[in-house]
């Protein structure tokens, strides 16, 4: 029986959630955000709730870019699950371990100004 070789990569999933402090605001939803992971490899754009496989182990930054343009709103991002926010920067971090497949959830609470 050949020895079992442990995986040297991992799979990361980014889950984007948008909530509203009052009524939903037109022009603000999950598809308005471009999600990024950046780590030992180059910056990658990832799709909400789609696993990104084959990532080398190491520390990754998780970020988002909002492409919409509604007037009179503010965003408050919170990172949870397999990642945590770095200070109050709007960027999350996670340590990816071989064979472990974490999910980083970014929740934006949207409020009218």
Q: What is the element layout, followed by pairings?
A:
Blueprint: E1 9-20, E2 33-38, E3 44-46, E4 52-56, E5 58-66, E6 73-81, E7 84-85, E8 92-96, E9 103-112
Parallel strand pairs: 1-9
Antiparallel strand pairs: 1-4, 2-3, 2-5, 5-8, 6-9, 7-8
Explain how this protein is built:
The protein is mainly β. The protein is built from no helices and 9 strands. It has strands at residues 9-20, 33-38, 44-46, 52-56, 58-66, 73-81, 84-85, 92-96, 103-112. The strands form 2 sheets. A 5-stranded antiparallel sheet has the order 3-2-5-8-7, with no helix packed on it. Strands 4-1-9-6 form a 4-stranded mixed sheet, with no helix packed on it. The radius of gyration is 16 Å and the shape is elongated. It starts with 8 loop residues before the first strand and ends with a strand. The mean pLDDT is 88.
């Amino acid at each position: 029986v050949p020895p079992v070789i442990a995986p040297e990569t991992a799979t990361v999933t980014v889950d984007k959630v948008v909530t509203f402090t009052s009524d939903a605001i037109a022009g603000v939803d999950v598809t308005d955000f471009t999600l990024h992971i950046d780590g030992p490899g180059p910056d990658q754009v990832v799709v909400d709730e789609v696993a990104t496989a084959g990532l080398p182990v190491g520390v990754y930054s998780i970020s988002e870019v909002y492409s919409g343009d509604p007037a009179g709103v503010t965003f408050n991002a919170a990172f949870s699950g397999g990642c945590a926010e770095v200070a109050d920067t709007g960027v999350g971090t996670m340590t990816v371990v071989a064979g472990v497949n974490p999910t980083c959830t970014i929740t934006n609470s949207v409020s009218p100004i």
